[in-house]
Design the sequence.
């Protein structure tokens, strides 16, 4: 098994820097997800690793070998494309064994590898069909089959599930994960879908404008985002960001009289709080007004107004809210994320126990889901 | 009443096209067939039915056989060459090279020129001793050569001119087909280590087959249909060495005014073309992958 090491990787297109000074490593047998909005450089980074683009500067090492300037075929990796890149005139079997034919793998071994891959992916009955006769999910499996028979220890995936419907995407996600585990592949997986990233990754590299915004395990990315960008990218609905103001006893939500959330200045700082960590609590310390309700069945998302700002709250159950209904909200002090307004970077502040003055202090801890 | 009016409407709409098609395609074709069975009327003597007389004399006509042979050589030579060349040119101008649009224009240029003009240009190229070709070859110590006047090279020279004229046109179809191809196919193949030639052989060429069939039909039809360059360059000579079937028909019909015999020759040409079309659409079509 081989790991991947990226050092100071840069890719410049004329005046546009697609990838700027990106460094990370992927340990052997681990799955790293490159996550970010479109145009953030995640696909370019993947293509640089694959050798489909050549780096402007920096170094790429696979299994300890410097492959920065090697052509794709000599890097010892396989890749699954978003469009699957299946050859429309070849059968499923021919598509899967295309690379083995190129490398002149002996017939017997070719047959064994094909049978192995077909059996894992449940493609046995489809081997003589053409790609156009397959469903999207089956085409995806053929593309995976190609990666399996290559027996490369490094596999790159470029948004492999984005052309599938929601149910299929969910199933294939689980399948890719178990495949990666059982074959011990080192995998780099590009996606813009944070749910996919959270459920698949051993480690997520969140990219923004060609740079790494944050590199962390999924749980850490959720619990301690380093910036408002990272905070809002992970989680559905996105974290609410409220500006703060100076209050008598500390920082307060701007447009309100309190309570003080933490000691010190509030002006120039932002409060981030996830909708799922806010409670609709009749004894809660924060006054809010319901502006609209987005009903989802098991839960609802409330758009609330605090002072002059909006905040989203996820509430479970069936309680109905009227428009402009006044409610009280509460949250665990530990659930707050504080960012500096100008740099949008995370800062650590010790929260005050602002709920303690009330009859029922916050008992429930923040849920991580 | 309403019903019959509804049936009339489509016929009225079809009428202009039908009239044109019948007047200029179907009626002449049928009349050619009929005429080929009659002897030419002379003066007061009306045309007389002679059945297959013209077809029998055709069998004994050495010029007919020479022109048929030349047509076969011409088609077998120009069609694969034009297809190969146009495919190559399309692949070149489809790759990311400098001056790509300029090259596309150069390759396409011969297509927009009339065949008469093309033939006149090539007349200069073929001129013995001071023509472009002889001048170029003299650099390597070759003797001067009368390309169009030598029975061994006259037909070949016509073929080269035709290929030069046709390939640019077919290139456009290949270019369109290449641009339809998903570029990630090439990337996937590159990752597997497939070289350029391997990729061409196993992916590009098979995927271009529908285009090749289309181009092939057009090239073959053109090879039987175009004689402008024959008239300008060789007039079928020397000693019928460059007389192709249509040129012979033209000579028989409009130089010797034996339109009845020319009609019989035309029927042969029609049968050949129909046969080729049948082979292409009926047999090759089933072996080609369409998306």
Sequence:
């Amino acid at each position: 098994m081989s790991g991947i090491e990226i050092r100071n990787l840069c890719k410049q297109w004329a005046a546009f820097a697609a990838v700027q000074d990106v460094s990370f490593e992927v340990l052997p047998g681990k799955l790293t997800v490159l996550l970010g909005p479109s145009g953030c450089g995640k696909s370019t980074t993947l293509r640089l690793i694959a050798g489909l683009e050549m780096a402007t500067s920096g170094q790429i090492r696979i299994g300890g070998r410097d492959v920065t300037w090697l052509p794709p075929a000599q890097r010892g990796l396989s890749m699954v494309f978003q469009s699957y890149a299946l050859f429309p005139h070849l059968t499923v079997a021919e598509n899967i064994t295309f690379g083995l034919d190129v490398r002149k793998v002996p017939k017997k071994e070719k047959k064994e590898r094909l049978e192995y891959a077909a059996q894992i992916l449940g493609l046995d009955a489809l081997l003589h069909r053409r790609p156009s006769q397959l469903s999207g999910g089956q085409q995806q499996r053929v593309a995976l089959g190609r990666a399996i028979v290559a027996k490369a220890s490094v596999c790159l995936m470029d948004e492999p599930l984005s052309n599938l419907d929601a149910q299929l995407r969910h199933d294939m996600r689980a399948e890719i994960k178990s495949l990666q585990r059982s074959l011990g592949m080192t995998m780099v997986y590009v996606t813009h879908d944070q749910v996919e990233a959270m459920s698949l990754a051993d480690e997520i590299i969140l990219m923004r404008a060609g740079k790494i915004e944050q590199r962390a395990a999924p749980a850490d990315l959720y619990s301690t985002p380093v910036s408002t960008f990272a905070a809002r990218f992970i989680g559905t609905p996105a974290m609410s960001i409220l500006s703060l103001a100076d209050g008598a006893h500390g920082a307060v939500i701007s447009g309100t009289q309190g309570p003080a959330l933490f000691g010190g200045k509030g002006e120039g700082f932002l409060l981030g709080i996830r909708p799922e960590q806010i409670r609709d609590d009749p004894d809660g310390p924060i006054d809010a007004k319901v502006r609209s309700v987005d009903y989802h069945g098991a839960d609802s998302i409330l758009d609330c107004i605090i002072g002059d700002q909006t905040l989203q709250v996820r509430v479970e159950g069936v309680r109905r809210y009227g428009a402009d209904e006044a409610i009280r909200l509460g949250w665990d002090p530990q659930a707050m994320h504080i960012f500096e307004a100008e740099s949008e970077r995370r800062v650590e502040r010790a929260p005050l126990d602002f709920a303690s003055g009330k009859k029922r202090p916050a008992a429930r801890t923040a849920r991580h889901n | 009443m309403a019903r019959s009016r509804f049936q009339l409407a489509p016929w009225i709409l079809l009428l202009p096209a039908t009239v044109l098609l019948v007047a200029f395609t179907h009626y002449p074709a049928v009349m050619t067939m009929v005429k080929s069975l009659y002897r030419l009327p002379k003066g007061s003597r009306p045309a007389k039915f002679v059945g297959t007389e013209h077809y029998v004399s055709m069998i004994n006509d050495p010029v007919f056989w020479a022109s048929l042979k030349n047509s076969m050589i011409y088609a077998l030579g120009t069609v694969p060459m034009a297809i190969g060349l146009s495919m190559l040119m399309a692949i070149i101008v489809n790759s990311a090279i400098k001056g790509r649009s300029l090259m596309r224009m150069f390759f396409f240029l011969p297509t927009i020129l009339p065949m008469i003009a093309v033939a006149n240009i090539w007349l200069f190229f073929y001129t013995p001793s001071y023509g472009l070709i002889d001048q170029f070859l003299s650099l390597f110590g070759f003797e001067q050569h009368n390309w169009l006047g030598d029975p061994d090279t006259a037909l070949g020279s016509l073929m080269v001119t035709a290929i030069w004229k046709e390939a640019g046109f077919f290139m456009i179809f290949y270019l369109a087909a290449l641009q339809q191809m998903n570029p990630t196919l090439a990337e996937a193949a590159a990752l597997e280590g497939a070289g350029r030639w391997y990729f061409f052989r196993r992916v590009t060429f098979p995927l271009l087959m529908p285009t090749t069939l289309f181009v092939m039909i057009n090239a073959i039809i053109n090879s039987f249909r175009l004689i402008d360059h024959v008239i300008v360059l060789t007039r079928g000579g020397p000693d019928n060495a460059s007389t192709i079937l249509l040129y012979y028909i033209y000579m028989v019909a409009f130089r010797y005014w034996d339109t009845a015999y020319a009609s019989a020759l035309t029927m042969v040409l029609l049968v050949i073309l129909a046969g080729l079309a049948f082979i292409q659409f009926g047999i090759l079509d089933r072996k080609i992958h369409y998306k």
